[in-house]
Specification:
Layout lengths: L2 E9 L11 E11 L2 E8 L2 E7 L6 E9 L1 H10 L6 E10 L2 E8 L7 E6 L13 E4 L8 H6 L7 H4 L2
Antiparallel strand pairs: 1-5, 1-8, 1-9, 2-3, 2-6, 3-4, 4-5, 6-7, 7-8
Length: 161
């Protein structure tokens, strides 16, 4: 069974952005039930259907399958909850880790989250200087929750301002 082991962090500044090209993603959620999700994503001229289990600590099952882009567009248009998640993703390799920094758009504009996938839960990582703080396990930062309660509706207190 494929397992995703991931940690999430808020980003302090844009110092990581120099010379890194963005990849635009649009994704929508067909189902979010008891922490499990079913989503469709289009990015880099490819489309995927992804099913994720509820997270236990920082791990969860993840099943991802390529689908035709036209099918993904129809699913996004007709079956997914609104608002859709739109973001630009930047991929940065630091040492042996690939950091993915998501700069959210539209209803989640202003939110920037860095994610790093690990090989094991107890793996030590060195945080880049542009990391503000860890938000792993805080459900409000899950993309599926940002559909239900977008960042634009958060209070300053919820944003940590």
């Amino acid at each position: 069974m494929p397992i995703e082991i991931e940690r999430k962090f808020l980003v302090r500044d844009s110092s990581w952005m120099k010379g890194v090209p963005p990849i635009y993603y649009c994704q929508g959620y067909i189902s979010t039930h008891n922490g499990a999700t079913v989503r469709v994503r289009i990015g880099e001229n490819k489309a995927y259907l992804c099913i994720k289990s509820i997270a236990v600590k920082i791990s969860r099952s993840e099943f991802e399958y390529p689908i035709p882009i036209e099918d993904a567009k129809a699913i996004l248009d007709n079956l997914c909850a609104r608002p859709l998640i739109e973001k630009n993703r930047y991929k940065i390799k630091i040492g042996n880790l690939l950091w993915e920094i998501d700069v959210f758009e539209k209803n989640n504009k202003g939110l920037i989250i860095a994610e790093v996938e690990l090989e094991r839960e107890d793996q030590d990582i060195e945080l880049p200087p542009w990391i503000l703080r860890e938000v792993t396990g805080d459900r409000k930062y899950y993309n599926s929750m940002l559909v239900q309660y977008p960042y634009s509706k958060w209070t300053n207190e919820e944003k940590g301002l």
